[in-house]
Design brief:
Number of strands: 25
Bound molecules: zinc ion
CATH superfamily of the largest domain: Metal-dependent hydrolases
Strand content: 15-25%
Largest sheet: 9 strands, mixed
Helix content: 25-40%
CATH architecture of the largest domain: Alpha-Beta Barrel
Low-confidence stretches: 1-12
Mean pLDDT: 95
Structural class: alpha/beta
Length: 555
C-alpha cells in the first residue's frame, strides 16, 4: 500500500527517489497548470516546479531522468476495456485490417499452423464486414476454404457474433443437435443446416469446449497485456473480465490479479468492472465480501457491470424505432425493464457502483428509467452510476442522464468504423444527436474516455484524435462525423485523465500531476495542445510512469 506524504514531511525535506526534469508538464491541475520538473518519493509526487527548484532537492542516491524538453501529461486512463479478452486475442489471427472476406481468408491461411499449435484450434478476431468491399456476414462456407481439418472460429469485432467452420460444427456436435438458447442464436440456412454463425451466448458453445488457462498462464497474459497498455501511455484501466472464459472463473481472475500485485508484476492500475448478469451471481460475489472500492494494491473492485443490449454493427443495439436499414428489427434488449430495475436496486442497495452497457436509445432509456426509480426510492450519496457507450441519443435523453448525474463512459474511437453506418442504421436526424460528446461536455457531465479494447485498439492518441476531429485516424481525408459534436483538446485530455480517475473514485489520488498524488505520468513526442488538430494522431508515446516507476520508455 502507498503511504501519502504529509505536507510536514515535504517542508521538513525528504530524500527524493526520482526527479523527472527538463519536461514540459501540463499538469491538468488548475492551481499549478505548468511545470518543468516533478519529484517523486515512494511513488507519490512530492514537488512540482521549475528545473532549478526541483533539481536542488536531488541527493546522491536520487535518480534523475531527463525528459529532453518533451511534453508530459498525467497518465492516460482507459475507462472501459476488456484486458483479458485482449490478452487472448494476442494468440488469435488479427482480422481488423482485412478489407474483404478474401483477405480475411488469406490472413487465416497464412497463420494456420502457427496459431493453431497451442490447442488445435485456429481462432480469429477483429473482423467487421462493414469494412469489407462486399459487406456480407461470412459463413462456414467461407471458413471451409481455410481448412476442413482444423476447427476455426472467428469473432466479429463487437464480440456479439462468432463464425465457425464445418470442422468446428462437427466437433461441437451442432450438426447433430441445435441447442435452444435464451440469449443466443445458432443460425441455420434455408435448408435448416447450421450455417456457422453463432450470435450472443451461442458463442459460449465454442468457449465451453475450449476450457480455461492455468493460473500461471493467466498471470503471464495479464502482465503482458498491461505492459502493452503502458506502451500506449495508459497508467490506469477499467476492465470487464469476468466473462472472458465460460464457467465461474471470477475467483481465478481475481487471484491472478492479487498474485501479480503481491509479486510486484502488475504494471498499471486496474479497476475491475464486475459483469454479474443475474441476482444469484451478484449475491454470490457480495457474499465473498467484495464490493466497489475493495482494494488490493493496484487492483481495485469497481462497478457492477450490466449488459443491456448488443451492438450497432450487428443491429442488436436496442432501439426505440425499427432500424432504418432493417425495419423488421429494433435490436435486442438483454433484460426486461423489471429485471433491470431489480439488478440495479440490488447493486445500489449493496454499495456497488453500477455501469451499464447501453448503445441503442431504447436501452439507454430503459436504464435511465430504472436508475431514476431506484435512486428515488433509495437515495445514496455520490454513487457514480453510469452508462457505458451511450451512443444513440437525443437531447431529451441526454437531459435525463444529466439530471441523474450518471457518468458517461465514451469510446470516441468507435467513430472510426461507425461513422459509415450510423445514418444507415438510425437515420440522419437521430444520427445527428448521437455520439454527441459535445452535448455531454456542454452540460458539465462526467465524460471519461475508453477504447473497449479489443473492440478497438487501446491506443489513446488516435482515440483522442477522434474525440477532437470526428475523423477516422486511418482515413483522415474522409469527412468528419458531425464536427460540431466533438470536444476541445483540453476536454479530451481531461476525459482520458482526471475523468477516468473520477469514474473510479480516485480523483484525489491520481488524474492530475499534483503534490500528494501517485506519480502516474505519460511523456509524448509533441505538445498535444500545440500541434495542428490533424497531426494529433501522429503523436508518439515516449515514456510511461506508474508510481514514478518507468513502465515504458522510448526516449
Ligand atoms: Zn465492452
Amino acid at each position: 500500500m502507498m503511504v501519502k506524504i504529509t505536507v510536514d514531511q515535504i517542508i521538513g525535506g525528504i530524500k527524493m527517489d526520482t526527479i523527472f526534469y527538463n519536461g514540459k508538464f501540463r499538469t491538468m491541475d488548475k492551481m499549478n497548470p505548468e511545470a518543468e520538473a516533478v519529484a517523486v518519493k515512494d511513488g507519490i509526487i512530492t514537488r512540482v516546479g521549475s528545473n532549478e527548484e526541483i533539481l536542488a532537492l536531488a541527493e546522491a542516491h536520487t535518480k534523475k531522468v531527463d525528459l529532453e524538453g518533451k511534453f508530459a501529461l498525467p497518465g492516460f486512463s482507459d475507462s472501459h476495456l476488456h484486458l483479458i479478452y485482449y490478452a487472448n486475442t494476442k494468440r488469435k489471427v488479427e482480422l481488423s485490417q482485412a478489407r474483404s472476406i478474401e483477405e480475411a481468408i488469406s490472413l487465416c491461411k497464412a497463420q494456420l499452423q502457427e496459431k493453431s499449435k497451442e490447442d488445435g484450434w485456429l481462432l480469429g478476431c477483429g473482423w467487421n464486414q462493414e469494412d469489407w468491399k462486399v459487406p456480407v456476414f461470412p459463413t462456414k462456407i467461407d471458413l471451409d476454404k481455410i481448412s476442413q481439418d482444423i476447427p476455426i472460429a472467428i469473432t466479429r469485432t463487437c464480440y456479439h457474433a462468432t463464425v465457425i467452420n464445418s470442422k468446428a460444427i462437427e466437433l461441437l456436435g451442432l450438426n447433430k443437435e441445435i441447442p435452444e438458447l435464451s440469449n443466443g442464436i445458432v443460425e441455420v440456412d434455408e435448408n435448416g443446416q447450421v450455417n456457422g454463425i453463432l450470435r450472443e451466448s451461442a458463442q459460449n458453445i465454442v468457449w465451453n469446449y475450449m476450457g480455461v488457462p492455468t493460473l500461471e498462464d493467466l498471470k503471464n497474459r495479464i502482465e503482458d497485456a498491461c505492459l502493452d497498455a503502458a506502451s500506449k501511455g495508459i497508467t490506469a484501466i477499467q476492465t470487464d473480465d469476468f466473462e472472458t472464459f465460460t464457467g465461474d472463473t471470477i475467483d481465478l481472475i481475481i487471484k491472478a490479479y492479487h498474485e501479480l500485485v503481491s509479486e510486484g508484476r502488475l504494471p498499471v492500475r486496474v479497476y475491475q468492472q464486475c459483469l454479474l448478469r443475474t441476482p444469484e451471481k451478484l449475491q454470490a460475489f457480495l457474499d465473498k465480501g467484495y464490493k466497489t472500492g475493495y482494494e488490493f494494491g493496484l487492483y481495485k473492485i469497481g462497478p457492477l457491470k450490466l449488459l443491456n443490449d448488443g451492438s450497432l454493427g450487428a443491429r442488436t443495439a436496442y432501439m426505440r424505432e425499427p432500424y432504418h436499414d432493417d425495419p423488421s428489427t429494433k435490436g435486442v434488449a438483454l433484460y426486461d425493464p423489471e429485471q433491470l430495475t431489480k439488478m440495479i436496486k440490488m447493486g445500489h442497495e449493496n454499495g456497488m457502483q453500477i455501469a451499464i452497457h447501453c448503445i441503442g436509445d431504447a436501452a439507454i432509456e430503459m436504464a435511465v428509467n430504472s436508475f431514476e426509480q431506484v435512486m428515488l426510492e433509495s437515495p445514496r450519496t455520490d454513487p457514480r452510476h453510469g452508462i457505458v457507450h451511450c451512443q444513440i441519443t437525443d437531447i431529451n435523453l441526454i437531459e435525463r442522464i444529466k439530471k441523474l448525474n450518471l457518468l458517461i463512459y465514451a469510446q470516441p474511437i468507435f467513430i472510426r468504423a461507425d461513422k459509415n453506418i450510423i445514418n444507415q442504421r438510425v437515420g440522419e436526424e437521430l444520427g445527428s444527436t448521437s455520439y454527441n460528446w459535445r452535448a455531454f461536455a456542454d452540460r458539465n457531465m462526467h465524460l471519461s474516455g475508453g477504447s473497449d479494447c479489443p473492440v478497438e485498439k487501446f491506443d489513446t492518441i488516435p482515440n483522442m484524435y477522434c474525440a477532437v476531429t470526428g475523423k477516422n485516424p486511418e482515413r483522415d481525408s474522409d469527412p468528419a462525423w458531425h464536427p460540431e459534436n466533438c470536444l476541445t483538446v483540453d476536454e479530451t485530455v481531461k476525459g482520458f485523465t482526471w475523468e477516468g480517475a473520477y469514474a473510479a473514485f480516485q480523483e484525489n489520488e491520481r488524474g492530475t500531476i499534483s503534490v500528494g498524488k501517485y506519480a502516474d505520468m505519460v511523456v509524448l513526442s509533441e505538445d498535444l495542445y500545440q500541434v495542428p488538430e490533424d497531426q494529433i494522431k501522429d503523436i508518439q508515446v515516449k515514456m510511461t510512469m506508474v508510481n514514478g516507476e518507468i513502465k515504458y520508455s522510448d526516449l
